[in-house]
Amino acid sequence: MMDFLEEPIPGVGTYDDFNTIDWVREKSRDRDRHREITNKSKESTWALIHSVSDAFSGWLLMLLIGLLSGSLAGLIDISAHWMTDLKEGICTEGLWFNHEHCCWDSKYVTFEDKDKCPKWSSWSQLLISTDEGAFAYIVNYFMYVLWALLFAFLAVSLVKVFAPYACGSGIPEIKTILSGFIIRGYLGKWTLIIKTITLVLAVSSGLSLGKEGPLVHVACCCGNILCHCFNKYRKNEAKRREVLSAAAAAGVSVAFGAPIGGVLFSLEEVSYYFPLKTLWRSFFAALVAAFTLRSINPFGNSRLVLFYVEFHTPWHLFELVPFILLGIFGGLWGALFIRTNIAWCRKRKTTQLGKYPVIEVLVVTAITAILAFPNEYTRMSTSELISELFNDCGLLDSSKLCDYENRFNTSKGDELPDRPAGAGVYSAMWQLALTLIMKIVITIFTFGMKIPSGLFIPSMAVGAIAGRLLGVGMEQLAYYHHDWGIFNSWCSQGADCITPGLYAMVGAAACLGGVTRMTVSLVVIMFELTGGLEYIVPLMAAAMTSKWVADALGREGIYDAHIRLNGYPFLEAKEEFAHKTLAMDVMKPRRNDPLLTVLTQDSMTVEDVETIISETTYSGFPVVVSRESQRLVGFVLRRDLIISIENARKKQDGVVSTSIIYFTEHSPPMPPYTPHTLKLRNILDLSPFTVTDLTPMEIVVDIFRKLGLRQCLVTHNGRLLGIITKKDVLKHIAQMANQDPDSILFN
Questions:
Q1: What is the pTM of this model?
Q2: What is the pLDDT of residue 4?
Q3: Would you list the DSSP string of 304-352?
Q4: 110, 170, 426, 663: which sits with the fewest CB atoms below 10 Å from its CB?
Q5: H helix or E strand, kind and range, residue 505
Q6: CA 729, CA 570: separation in Å to the nearest integer?
Q7: 177-194 pLDDT tens trace
Q8: Predicted confidence (pLDDT) per residue in 248-281, tens digit
Q9: How many Å apart are CA 652 and CA 115, to the nearest integer?
Q10: Residues 511 and 393 placed together within one structural domain of the fold
Q11: What is the spatial distance between Cα 461 and Cα 515, in angstroms, rounded to a whole number?
């Protein structure tokens, strides 16, 4: 009898689509591979070189991920900037210049009229040769809406036709993939190409979405594709997930120019398994990605983001009160957004609306563009809006937000004292209030459409507007009532006490925290954005308050809510299981169910096993000594069985339907003229995880979370009783929480 499995068979040990990986088995296989390489390295110089290259391959992979992610992020930033300006006009000197680069060296541009530039032509100047009057306004309005609709139509069409997985932010799916789930094609080359192109189109269309979340998906696609260049990562799903955790860090690093924030984001928000080695590699990948983006310099300001600011005025202890109020607002907005957005997305999934993604995107784009054009704060890109709101007014600022009275009566250099608001500030306040209402409402309907859509920037915009409004209010209060008890101890007349831009920054952090429930990574990202170490306490106060308020109104962040909505098999590590059920209450089969389908170790033929495989859909089968004893021997995966039997029929002479399959170490001598036997011990897992029938479910849930199990066998006095799969655990948790257990869609 041949043991044909001494040679590895292609496909054995791999997984089907929409299945969970076996973390324990993958880690064990990697340890075996590493042990073999280490032992061989002592035998020859070539084996030693192979051992060194294997150890170095992880760092090389991180370098490549950083370079590719940074390059793609730079390309996306430059293209989106140019196409956003294309809606308003073109540069007559060179079509490829955006507005800012077109007017870079113009002699006619002043601080007051920075938009007046002979080289830049609006659409009304091109089409009807004038920029004045109602007709010119209508032409510009029409072209703005037309370009927005064209960009949105191209984005949704490309996603629908070429890569359906390129829609959304991608973070809920990446969290699920990192927990061990397999979604084939989600991180493939087509998804990467289409997501990169459509992300530029979606951002340029003026919809209320950001590119930051999708950049994490883009970076993870880069990581997954580059993994195929290295055997170590191509063949091991657990090792690949370590790489994807580092790629997620690189994605946030280029999205916000925050390498340390990216590493903490990966650790706090997306990663399921994050060993110390992955922390170092994430740090290196984020560093390389940020360096690459800095070299490209997409915004021309030597910064990694458009809204980098520096504040110089220290904050006062009393200001913690408005900062905490912003935290409360952020928590309320976060909870409101999650509830309404999930309700809308559920309606999209369960009604006819979901069948017409192109029409939905075009309708939302048309409404957004029509409402956005009349208001300068909604017309500009959301990143530019945040940049303007974060900005601390200086002497040379011509923005309406800086239109204060007696602006130039100062001898303090560029720092201006608190001063009465002029007509421009009051006008800007009204426009910002309208912008706030529009952003709050339209973002609910935008996030989750069939185009790439991030949530970081719209959430930050909502908070930054609320913060700037409160900041200007506080500034005017301090100016007119500096003799009040709350102000007179630290704010004298003519001093620069309140910084409205700081309030905008704290508000942005609060709203982003309320929606995503990030805390540590959020604060680090925000201070890396602004370079203001002294503002960590206000940011921490706002982020913590927003999380507490949002958690009081609903436990889930937006990504966890979307994971549950889509029915992904994700076991949340942060949630406690507090019910007193036992393993026997959850295991299959139940009391009145048919008996558990098992294989015996030495009495089943190839035909018997093939019949069981064709009649059931289980992803694996327990192997027992005999049906009478039900003593457990091990566990074998369905996919491994199918591949091994097919391979044996092709390559091993004498294997027929009546051949007996042996899972034992030694097979008994067979009488002459009997069919050849088939030995499949090598695909048998001899150490499946088992619990007794009286094990509390809180321990079982903990085991599934911490070991990343696919299934766990239940025994009683050593006899096999049943099986608990990850899906059973998730259904049980849903049932205990009075939710629909059938919402868990996948194995």
A1: 0.89
A2: 42
A3: SSTT-----SPP-GGGHHHHHHHHHHHHHHHHHHHHHHHHHHHHHHHSG
A4: 110
A5: helix 500-516
A6: 10
A7: 998 888 988 999 999 999
A8: 999 999 988 889 999 999 998 888 888 888 999 9
A9: 78
A10: yes
A11: 13
Residue whose entry in the numeric block shows the structure tokens 């030597």: 302
Range of the domain at 604: 583-737
- Per-residue burial over 515-543, b if 16 or more Cβ lie within 10 Å, else e, is bbbbbebbbbbbbbbbebeebeebbbbbb
Q: Are 245 and 270 in contact (CB under 8 A)?
A: yes
Q: How far apart are CA 239 and CA 718, in angstroms?
A: 34
Chain centroid to Cα 501, Å, comes to 28
Residue type, 23: W
Whether residue 703 contacts residue 691, with contact meaning beta carbons closer than 8 Å, is answered with yes
Residues 426 and 555 reside in one and the same domain: yes
Angstrom CA distances, 494 to 322, 658, 660, stand at 22, 97, 94
What the block records as the tokens of 454 is 């991030």
Which two structure tokens, joined as six digits, stand for 258? Answer: 């925050």
For the chain, what's the residue count? Answer: 747
Q: Is 38 part of any domain? A: no
Please tell me the predicted confidence (pLDDT) of residue 744: 62
The CATH number given to whatever domain includes residue 126 is: 1.10.3080.10
The per-residue pLDDT for 5 is 43
Residues 395 and 407 sit within 8 Å (Cβ to Cβ): yes
Q: Are 435 and 375 in contact (CB under 8 A)?
A: yes
Q: Is residue 39 part of a domain?
A: no
What single letter denotes the amino acid at residue 502?
A: L
Angstrom distance (rounded) from CA 618 to CA 641:
12
CB distance 194 to 162 below 8 Å: yes
Residues with Cβ < 8 Å from 591, sequence gap 6 or more?
Answer: none
- CA–CA dist 241, 256 (Å, integer): 23
Contact between 409 and 420 under an 8 Å Cβ cutoff? The reply is no
Backbone angles phi, psi at 46, to 5 degrees: -60, -40
320 in helix, strand or coil?
helix
Q: Is 185 left (phi over 0), alpha (psi -120 to 50) or beta?
A: left
CATH number at residue 602: 3.10.580.20
144 in Cβ contact with 379 (< 8 Å): yes
* 72 closest CA partner among 221, 205, 287, 265: 221
What percentage of the chain exceeds 90 in pLDDT?
33
Tell me the pLDDT of the chain averaged across its residues: 85
User: In terms of domains, do 99 and 191 share one?
Assistant: yes
Strand arrangement, sheet containing 660-662: 604-605, 660-662, 678-679
Name the pairing type of β-strands 711-716 and 719-725. antiparallel
Q: Residue 589 and residue 627: Cα distance in Å, rounded?
A: 16
The amino acid at residue 391 is: N
* Cα separation values, 530 from 305, 406, 421, 692, 735, Å: 10, 28, 25, 55, 45
Q: Which of 644, 616, 640, 639 is nearest to 723 (CA)?
A: 616
pLDDT tens-place string over residues 31-81: 888 888 888 888 888 888 888 888 899 899 999 999 999 999 999 988 998
Q: In whole angstroms, give the CA distance from residue 273 to residue 471.
A: 41
83 touches 144 (CB < 8 A): no
In DSSP terms, 89 is beta-bridged to 122
The last residue of a domain, from among 296, 330, 355: 296
